Structures are given as structure tokens and as C-alpha cells.
């Protein structure tokens, strides 16, 4: 049996981490793997497409209500092909501290979740950039050992991706690859591929911009479930296989701001 | 916010401080508080009186924003260089925990020879015993205590929490502090009972180092009974087992027994100095089997941990060091409740019994007889 994969997907807010994560989860489930997805975005959109558009109570929702979370069933819900879904949730905008929320939820999850040990793949869909200590809690608390960075060929997402690489080396976490979620900008694949090489990694997938991803998402399904015979579904399948087979993670070397600018010019 | 469920109104003892005290009981020589310089200041200073050094990484606004990892690494190395301690503790604070500081990474990076007990704790727990538990878990991880002792401590902590919630300072959302009854009046009543030939049980059920002063009440009562020629009417219970507890706690029991010399005979050992939350059951069995017909009981330390059924029919004189313990004890039915103010600061760093106000009052009144 393969050792358990515990990965986190980082990247700029709004770049498509959740749809990538949930489609990869569905693709791996299709291949017969035991998969768990842990969404750390307050939007709860990592699991929603695996649950037919249904929202599940988040760990922090329950804590806010003062509930004692003691059993896995309180926060772990089964979705498409038995993918186990967990949502961390977050405080209301403008109050409290999201970073601390992640720390608390992760500690709670670690304590109660038995089935985590039985998974072949656990995907942490972490929020946006690594902006503070709380956002790296899944890694720091020993729950993640590989990271992927998601970006497009635009300057801002690349800037965030580069920043994330700084964060990863700071916390001694390996980077397993760069994923490009295309925004159809010029020379996109070339730019992201170059970026990946310069930081010492590889471009492991180029996901073209397709309306069908959006359509499936709106309906509350993954591409794999609703449009399994499309080309884009095949892209996710390949990415999923790459992730499961990957064994060459590197210590990323972040680029200087100047170099990053040059790259996107 | 669920206003209805407000269960705490006045500040509770802090779990950070509880962790510090536990590190002391584990004979840690230096504890580093990772957080702002003002955190737990009063207890940090008190603990220094007790022989453990407490230092802080003194995080400031910049530390809150940018993290304090490097400061902690530097502090760990500085502590080793300056004090060469055999055992070190690192304790989190609210600030460092909220911003997600990793104590372990800093400890690994500092790479010291001495074992380091890491305690990731903040003060946001209703039960401050959480701080003790985290410290013990970490001590177990680095092999300073064994699993058996860990489980024993865990059990005692649960019992201590239950006692506080049922009968103690955590039993109500707000408790008015009180100085209790006047010591002179109560001492007079005790002497009156002794002179009338009434039989009394003196129970020392104290928490750890507080026993250095509460034991003085046992000694004073004994002296007074001897003076009045009624020493046979008094039996002494004490939780002074020298074989139980964390290293420093056992030493306290040894010191106190040694200081009592042959002047005071402890008739019944009711547990170790960390067993105050469970010693009540032992007291109950002893009274039921041997001391049913006694008229009064003088209980010092944690009187609210002794079940009332055990004390039925006896006039109760109880001595605590918590001004917020007076009302709960009165509610339970203790007729006389006394407070030894500032007991704790006076019992830190000592190895001999310390005079109590009630003991001194008893002695003085007996002199005037």
C-alpha cells in the first residue's frame, strides 16, 4: 500500500483552489482511493460540489454555538464516492481571528478524527496566501507534508505563489509542484512553467479555462461527476494521478520581486 | 454571544500559571514564558521565591505582528548559557498561541542539552487544570514522568475540577470575597469545646505547598490540647504521604513531617499533598469506622473537598486561604469559616512550617487560660 498523501493547496484568493481540490478529490475517488477533503475557506466551497450543492456545518460553526464536538460524525460528512468532507469555517467578516480559527479547528479535528488515518489522500484546501501563523496550522500541527501552489499566468497570482514559496521554506515544507489554473492570458503556460522551473519545481498541470467547470460548480457538482467525459475532466484525472504518483518534492527558492516582474513582462 | 450561559464573572486562576506551577513541581529550573513581558507577572515573581527562575521573551507589538520565533530561540540559548539548567520549561501565552507560534520548532532550533518541557497553553480555559494537564503531557513525552504517574495526575485533576465546580470558587458565576469569621471568636469556641471534654478531629487536607501554613493549625491545636490536658481527645488526619506525587510535592510532605518532630502524632495519613480532591473519601471511611462519636472537626486547607455526610453531627471549623471560599463553605453548613490571608506568598520557598494567624490566636488564648 502506498503511504498516505497529505497535501495542501495554496494560492491567491479566488484563483480556483477549491474547484481544483474538489475535482482532484473526485478523480481520486473514481480511481478507488479513500479521500478526505478539508476545506479551510469560510465559503465552504471545497466540499459543496462533492455534496450535490449541500452545505455542511463547519467545525467553527459548531464551536461558535458552544457545541461539544466529540465524534467524527459531527463534522465529517460523506460526499461523492464516499469522499469524506470537512469544512473548517471561519468568523464573521471583520470580527475575531480567522488564523486562530484554523488552529483551533485543526487541533479539534486531529483529536476526534479516527478515519483520517485510513485515508490514501487528504487534501487541505487552505485559504489564500500564507498570511499568518494560523494559515499554516495544518502543516505546523503535522497534518500536511506536501504542498502544491496554484496560480495563473497573471502577475498577482504569481506574486502570491512566490510569497507562498517563501512561507513554505520558512516552515521547512516541500513543494510538490505548481498547478496552473488558466485565465487565458497570453504566454500563460510558458510563464508559469518558467516560474515553476526557476523556483526549483515543475508545472504539474495546466488546467484550461472552460465554462463547463463554472457550470458544474453552479449546479453543485464536480466536473468529474457531472461532465466526466469532457477533456477538462481528463485534465483533472491526469493531475490526480500525478499527485498520487508524485515523489519528488523540493525546497522552493522564491524569486526576487524584480525577477518575477521580468518573468511576466 | 450566548448571554444566558454566562458562567464566569470574575477572573479565574490562569492555566498559564497552572502550567508554571506544574513545571516547578517537576523540578524545572528555568521556565520561559513566551509572550508579553507583563504576562503572569505576579505569579512569575512568586515562583521565583520558590526557587524556579521564570524569564520572558518579552514580545512587544512588533513581536505580536511579526512573530517571536527568533526571540524564543535566542532566549533558550541564553538560558542555557546563563543558568546551565538541568531541566527547562517553555510556556505559551495568549498572545503567542493566538498568532500561532510553534514552541517545538524553536526548541529544535535552539538544540540544547537539557530536556525542554514545552507547554502550548493560553489562559482561555474555564478549567485552569488544563495548564497542568498540558505540562504533564509534555513531561510524559520527554520521559520525565511515566504513564502511571500521568494517569494518576489526570485523575486528580478531574477530581479537583469537580470539587471546585460543585463546592468551590468555580461553583457560582460571582462570589463575593470575604475575610470569614473573626479568629479570636472561633479560637475561643475551640478552647471552650476542648475544656468541656469534647472530642475533635483535626484534618489537614491541603494543596501542595500551602500545607506549610495549614499544618501549623494541627501543631497549634495539639499544643493547646496538651496544655489543657486533653490531648487524647484529639486525633490528627493529614494528607502527608511522602511516597505520592511529583518530586517537589513529596519533598514538601517530608519537610512538614520532619518539622512536626515527635510533638505531633499524625494518626491517619489520608493521601499525598496532591490528593486533596480525593482525600475526602478516605476521611469519610475513617470517620465511619473509627471516629463516629466525635463532636467537632477542624479542617484546614481544602475543607470543601470533604463530603458533608462524613462530618454529620460535628461542629465544623474550617480554614481556607481563598476569600471566595467562605460563602460556599457556609452554604455547605460549615459553622465557622476562617481565611488565612496571603497564605500562598508566605509558603513559597520555605521548607519549614509557617505560623498561621489562627494557630497564633489559639496559642495566645490558651496562654491566657
From TrEMBL, chain A:
Indicate whether Iron appears among the record's keywords. Answer: yes
Tell me one GO molecular function of this protein. ATP binding
Q: Which Gene3D superfamilies match?
A: P-loop containing nucleotide triphosphate hydrolases
- What PROSITE patterns does the database record attribute to this sequence? NIFH_FRXC_1, NIFH_FRXC_3, PROKAR_LIPOPROTEIN
Which cofactors are required for activity?
A: [4Fe-4S] cluster
Highest rank taxon of the organism? Archaea
Q: What is this protein called?
A: Mo-nitrogenase iron protein subunit NifH
Task: Name the source organism.
Answer: Methanohalophilus portucalensis FDF-1
UniProtKB/TrEMBL annotation, chain B:
What does UniProt list as this organism's lineage? Archaea, Methanobacteriati, Methanobacteriota, Stenosarchaea group, Methanomicrobia
Q: NCBIfam families from the xrefs?
A: methan_mark_13
Superkingdom of this protein's organism: Archaea
Q: Tell me one GO molecular function of this protein.
A: oxidoreductase activity
Source organism per entry reads: Methanohalophilus portucalensis
- What PANTHER family does this protein's entry cite? NI-SIROHYDROCHLORIN A,C-DIAMIDE REDUCTIVE CYCLASE COMPLEX, COMPONENT CFBD (PTHR42846:SF1)
Protein's name according to its UniProt entry: Nitrogenase/oxidoreductase component 1 domain-containing protein
Report the Gene3D superfamilies cross-referenced here.
Answer: Nitrogenase molybdenum iron protein domain
Xref: SUPFAM superfamilies = Helical backbone' metal receptor
User: Which residue intervals define the domain Nitrogenase/oxidoreductase component in the entry?
Assistant: 19-141
Amino acid at each position: 500500500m502506498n503511504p498516505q498523501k497529505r497535501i495542501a493547496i495554496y494560492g491567491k484568493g479566488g484563483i480556483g483552489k477549491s474547484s481544483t481540490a474538489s475535482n482532484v478529490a473526485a478523480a481520486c475517488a473514481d480511481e478507488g482511493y479513500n479521500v478526505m477533503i478539508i476545506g479551510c475557506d469560510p465559503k465552504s466551497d471545497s466540499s459543496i460540489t462533492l455534496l450535490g450543492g449541500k452545505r455542511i456545518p463547519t467545525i467553527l460553526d459548531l464551536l461558535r454555538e458552544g457545541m461539544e464536538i466529540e465524534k467524527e460524525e459531527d463534522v465529517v460528512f460523506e460526499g461523492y464516492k464516499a469522499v469524506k468532507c470537512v469544512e473548517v469555517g471561519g468568523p464573521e467578516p471583520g470580527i475575531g481571528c480567522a488564523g486562530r480559527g484554523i488552529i483551533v479547528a485543526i487541533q479539534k479535528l486531529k483529536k476526534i478524527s479516527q478515519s483520517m488515518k485510513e485515508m490514501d489522500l487528504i487534501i487541505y484546501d487552505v485559504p489564500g496566501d500564507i498570511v499568518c501563523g494560523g494559515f499554516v496550522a495544518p502543516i505546523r500541527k503535522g497534518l500536511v507534508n506536501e504542498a502544491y501552489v496554484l496560480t495563473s499566468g497573471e502577475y498577482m497570482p504569481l506574486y502570491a505563489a512566490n510569497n507562498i514559496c517563501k512561507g513554505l521554506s520558512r516552515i521547512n515544507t516541500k513543494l510538490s509542484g505548481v498547478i496552473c489554473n488558466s485565465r487565458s492570458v497570453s504566454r500563460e503556460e510558458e510563464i508559469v512553467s518558467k516560474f515553476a522551473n526557476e523556483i526549483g519545481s515543475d508545472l504539474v498541470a495546466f488546467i484550461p479555462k472552460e465554462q463547463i467547470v463554472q457550470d458544474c460548480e453552479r449546479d453543485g457538482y464536480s466536473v468529474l461527476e457531472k461532465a466526466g467525459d469532457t477533456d477538462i475532466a481528463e485534465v483533472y484525472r491526469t493531475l490526480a494521478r500525478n499527485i498520487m504518483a508524485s515523489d519528488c518534492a523540493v525546497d522552493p527558492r522564491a524569486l526576487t520581486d524584480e525577477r518575477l516582474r521580468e518573468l511576466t513582462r | 454571544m450566548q448571554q444566558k450561559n454566562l458562567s464566569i464573572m470574575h477572573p479565574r486562576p490562569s492555566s498559564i500559571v497552572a502550567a508554571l506551577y506544574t513545571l516547578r513541581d517537576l523540578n524545572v529550573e528555568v521556565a520561559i514564558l513566551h509572550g508579553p513581558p507583563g504576562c503572569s507577572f505576579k505569579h512569575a515573581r512568586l515562583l521565583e521565591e520558590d526557587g524556579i527562575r521564570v524569564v520572558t521573551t518579552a514580545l512587544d507589538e512588533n513581536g505580536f505582528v511579526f512573530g517571536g520565533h527568533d526571540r524564543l530561540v535566542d532566549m533558550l540559548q541564553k538560558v542555557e548559557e546563563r543558568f546551565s539548567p538541568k531541566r527547562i520549561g517553555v510556556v505559551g501565552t495568549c498572545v503567542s498561541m493566538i498568532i500561532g507560534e510553534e514552541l517545538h520548532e524553536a526548541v529544535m532550533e535552539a538544540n540544547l542539552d537539557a530536556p525542554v518541557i514545552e507547554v502550548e497553553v493560553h489562559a482561555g480555559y474555564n478549567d485552569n487544570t488544563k495548564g497542568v494537564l498540558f505540562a504533564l503531557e509534555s513531561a510524559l513525552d520527554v520521559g520525565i514522568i511515566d504513564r502511571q504517574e500521568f494517569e494518576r495526575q489526570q485523575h486528580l485533576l478531574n477530581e479537583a475540577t469537580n470539587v471546585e465546580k460543585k463546592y468551590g470558587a468555580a461553583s457560582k458565576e460571582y462570589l463575593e470575597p470575604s475575610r470569614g469569621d473573626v479568629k479570636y471568636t472561633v479560637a475561643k469556641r475551640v478552647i471552650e469545646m476542648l475544656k468541656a471534654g469534647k472530642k475533635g478531629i483535626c484534618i489537614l487536607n491541603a494543596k501542595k505547598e500551602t500545607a506549610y501554613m495549614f499544618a501549623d493549625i494541627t501543631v497549634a491545636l495539639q499544643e493547646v490540647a496538651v496544655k489543657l490536658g486533653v490531648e487524647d481527645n484529639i486525633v490528627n488526619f493529614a494528607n502527608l504521604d511522602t511516597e505520592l506525587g511529583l518530586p517537589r510535592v513529596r519533598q514538601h510532605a517530608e519537610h512538614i513531617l520532619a518539622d512536626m518532630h515527635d510533638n505531633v502524632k499524625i494518626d491517619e495519613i489520608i493521601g499525598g499533598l496532591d490528593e486533596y480532591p480525593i482525600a475526602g473519601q478516605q476521611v469519610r471511611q475513617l470517620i465511619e469506622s473509627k471516629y463516629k462519636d466525635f463532636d467537632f472537626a477542624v479542617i484546614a486547607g481544602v475543607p470543601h473537598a470533604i463530603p458533608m455526610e462524613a462530618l454529620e453531627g460535628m461542629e465544623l471549623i474550617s480554614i481556607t486561604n481563598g476569600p471566595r471560599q467562605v460563602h460556599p463553605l457556609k452554604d455547605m453548613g460549615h459553622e465557622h469559616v476562617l481565611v488565612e490571608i496571603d497564605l500562598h506568598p508566605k509558603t513559597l520557598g520555605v521548607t519549614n512550617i509557617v505560623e498561621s494567624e489562627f494557630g497564633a490566636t489559639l496559642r495566645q488564648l490558651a496562654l491566657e487560660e
